[in-house]
UniProtKB/TrEMBL annotation:
A GO MF term: actin filament binding
GO cellular component, one term: cytoplasm
Single GO BP term: Rho protein signal transduction
Principal subcellular localisation of the protein: cytoplasm
Gene3D superfamilies: Alpha-catenin/vinculin-like (1.20.120.230)
Family: Belongs to the vinculin/alpha-catenin family.
Keyword Protein biosynthesis included in the entry's annotation: no
Keyword terms: Cytoplasm
Protein name: Alpha-catulin
Length: 763
């Protein structure tokens, strides 16, 4: 099997074939990477056959088929690239050159693999893969490099779309800041809401496509801020318009605008991979990261006694001990935990001193006794580090559990709402002090949790939570002060409610984050939880509530990989067929694309990727796929009424086949199973039935296209198909069909805010 062609710094080479693409082309997204994988696989197959002595007729025919397939695929690919170049003049020259190179390389490979008709390909004057062995490698390298360049250039267009969308949002935000009348605010906010929905869709697609998990986490954090701040911006702006002379209302509104601008800027930093003023991102080092690096260095002494200095190890330990001060100096760390951490830091220094002593002796004299002493010293040093890691984890998580439990009643928030409505400024001041204390506690909790989070994405989530408490606390206070000054104002009351809900939501997210951190620490990392307002398909399905999600192990994943690959190929075929249709709004096309999108997400599941994380997600997706197939069958019945009698029976027969397949899939997906073996059997059956339906769809689409063209030629025109309705959008989500992500990434709630809000309230 071919190795992945991509790495974080560019396109890696294949050791078996010597292939490599331009190392300067960095691949940052899964979609680009996955597009290259099958191409590398095919080319690697050709390269590996060039030196094989045995060449049967069957082998020669297979080589020719692969060469022709590569050339045809590259031809279709280049056609799309050329169309993109014509639509984007700033990239036209680069894209055109890359397309020409790719086409030329594809044709060269086809010529070199034209060997099926030759009895003795190596002795013929015709140049082939066997006579010009370096030529095919050179053509393969050029092909990979040029195709990668086309993909990376196309990816720049996606980045440009996000930047353009961000600029539109910023421009409208500036208008919103300056409005002085409700009527003007209503008009501009309506436009702003639509622009935010578009930005949310674009950035959601990008987030799901990113390879770097740290960038994904940062993008999720920024998008969560934007989602929540959109509602805050609405109520804060309305409050300012209702009470234009209120200083606390102005401070409250300015805080929201400032936070949204920072979040928008961070999104652009992530998608462009840049920092303002050329700064390098320097994330804070956690205790876990420092301990892991220190232990790796200590354990490497077993193989090489001279590769680092004792000063190096001493410095690394000092860094760890400095971080422990975050725990020992914290007012919220228990006395017991503080004492244990201090004891372990002293022990760590002693263990390192003993290790260095034995290590220095072993460098001079490698006796058996000294090497055994060194092994003991290494084990004791690492054991001490493990105990320190366990102690700081216990200190951070027990503090978090206690604080979250203590603040679940939200007593301070409730008191602020009551005293604000009463206009009791003195009581509001008292409770704002209590909220400030609570904020400091929660901020400290986030800082300590970051040290023990265990993974970089979770570290980023902790930093996001800390920022949220830091910012939302003062915003609640300014909103409460505004309400106390205007106790009869309904909009001021609503504004305080919105900020309090954001605080409560973040506390709820912290409970989930704490469980995730404990799971990582204890080695339970199977089912990845999703937070930051990012719901998954199937999350709210009532039929799934009582069922326990199951995640497939590596062996089972491998078993369904073949089925998944077949599903992937079928989605490509369906997409090629739908592209032929002039009327992309046709019901048949829309349902076909919907089914292809969902089948693609199921294919990603077989690879352990995408948004379908558990078997329950897969079963829910299969149900939606079957529903979409049934709708397509209805559209086929409608088409049968518009075609001639000779064709009607064939179309109706195919429609009935599809209905039957979809019913079977629905039954399978809804069937209740227990136990891992039964669950895997159900997964296998769902993917198999989906594959069969997609196979039928591949036959149906060209038939329908042919019938429509035939009838159009014969009758002049067909009856117009009913317009595609918004409610036909399904919740199937994947990188293959970005436009179907309305239910994901919290966009639905944002759309509801925009469409259902009442702006003009006489409050």
């Amino acid at each position: 099997m071919a190795t992945s062609p991509c790495s974080s710094s560019g396109v890696s080479s294949s050791s078996s074939s010597g292939l490599g693409a331009d190392a300067g082309l960095e691949i940052r997204t899964r979609s680009v990477e996955q597009t290259l994988v099958p191409l590398v696989s095919q080319i690697t197959t050709l390269i590996n056959h060039k030196d094989k002595p045995k060449r049967s007729d069957k082998t020669l025919q297979a080589i020719q088929r692969v060469g022709q397939a590569v050339n045809l695929a590259v031809g279709r690919f280049v056609t799309v690239g050329e169309a993109i170049a014509n639509e984007n003049h700033e990239l036209k020259e680069e894209m055109s050159i890359a397309c020409i190179e790719a086409r030329r390389a594809g044709e060269t490979i086809a010529q070199l693999t034209d060997v099926a008709s030759l009895d003795h390909p190596e002795s013929d004057s015709h140049i082939t893969i066997f006579t010009d062995k370096t030529g095919v490698v050179k053509a393969a390298r050029l092909l990979l490099s040029s195709v990668t360049k086309v993909l990376v250039l196309a990816d720049r267009i996606v980045i440009k779309q996000i930047i353009t969308s961000r600029n539109k949002v910023l421009a409208t935000m500036e208008q919103l800041e300056k409005v002085s009348s409700f009527q003007e605010f209503v008009q501009i906010f309506s436009q702003f809401g639509n622009e935010m929905v578009e930005f949310a869709h674009l950035t959601g697609d990008r987030q799901n496509d990113l390879k770097d998990e740290k960038k994904k986490a940062r993008m999720a954090a920024s998008r969560a801020v934007l989602e929540k701040c959109t509602m805050m911006l609405l109520t804060a702006s309305k409050t300012c318009l209702r009470h234009p002379d209120c200083e606390s209302a102005r401070i409250n509104k300015d805080g929201v605008f400032h936070r949204m601008r920072l979040a928008l800027e961070q999104v652009i930093e992530i998608v462009t991979d840049s920092r303002p003023n050329g700064e390098n991102e320097m994330p804070p080092i956690s205790i876990y990261s420092a301990i892991r690096e220190f232990k790796n260095k200590v354990e490497s002494l077993r193989g090489n006694l001279c590769f680092l200095s004792k000063e190096n190890l001493s410095t690394m330990l000092e860094v760890i001990l400095e971080h422990t001060e975050d725990f020992t100096d914290s007012a919220y760390t228990s006395h017991e935990h503080r004492e244990h951490i201090l004891e372990l830091t002293k022990q760590a220094k002693m263990e390192l001193e003993q290790l260095v002593s034995v290590w220095m002796q072993a460098q001079n004299q490698k006796t058996k006794d000294l090497m055994e002493d060194l092994e003991v010293a290494i084990l004791k040093t690492c054991q001490c580090m493990n105990e320190l890691k366990r102690e700081v984890h216990s200190a951070a998580t027990s503090l978090a559990a206690d604080l979250l439990k203590y603040h679940t009643d939200h007593m301070v928030l409730k008191a602020l709402k009551i005293t604000g409505v009463e206009g009791n400024l003195e009581a509001v001041a008292e409770y704002t002090c209590k909220l400030s204390e609570q904020k400091e506690q929660l901020v400290e909790m986030c800082r300590l949790l970051r040290h023990v989070s265990g993974t970089e994405p979770l570290e980023i989530t902790c930093i996001h939570a800390e920022d949220t408490f830091q910012v939302t606390g003062p915003q609640i206070i300014s909103a409460a002060e505004t309400l106390a000054l205007h106790p009869s104002s309904k909009i001021a009351k609503e504004n305080l409610e919105v900020f309090c809900e954001a605080w409560e939501s973040q506390l709820s997210d912290m409970s989930m984050l704490l469980r995730e951190i404990n799971d990582v620490f204890e080695g339970r990392r199977g089912e990845k939880r999703v937070y930051l307002s990012l719901p998954r398909p199937g999350k709210h399905n009532a039929n799934l509530k009582a069922l326990k999600p199951v995640k497939l192990d590596t062996e089972e994943q491998a078993k369904i990989a073949k089925l998944g690959l077949e599903l992937h190929l079928l989605t490509s075929d369906v997409d090629s067929e739908t592209e032929k249709w002039e009327d992309q709004e046709n019901e048949i096309v829309q349902h076909g694309q919907g089914m292809s999108s969902m089948a693609y997400s199921m294919y990603l599941f077989t690879r352990g990727e995408g948004l379908l994380k558990t078997t329950q997600d897969l079963f829910h997706q299969a149900e939606i796929f079957a529903t979409e197939g049934t709708k397509l069958a209805s559209a086929l019945h409608a088409l049968s009424a518009q075609v001639h009698d000779d064709d009607k029976s064939l179309l109706l027969l195919e429609a009935e086949k599809l209905i039957s397949m979809c019913k079977q899939l629905q039954i399978t997906a809804k069937a209740s199973v227990q136990g891992k073996s039964a669950t895997f059997t159900k997964v296998d059956a769902c993917i198999l039935k989906t594959r069969n339906a997609m196979t039928l769809l591949c036959q149906l689409l060209p038939l329908c296209w042919k019938l429509l063209r035939k009838n159009k030629a014969g009758n002049g025109c067909l009856k117009p198909a009913p317009p595609w309705r918004e409610d036909r959008i399904q919740t199937g989500t994947n990188a293959h069909a970005p436009e179907r992500r309305a239910e994901s990434f919290g966009i639905k709630s944002l759309e509801n805010h925009v469409t259902n809000m009442t702006f003009l309230e006489s409050k």
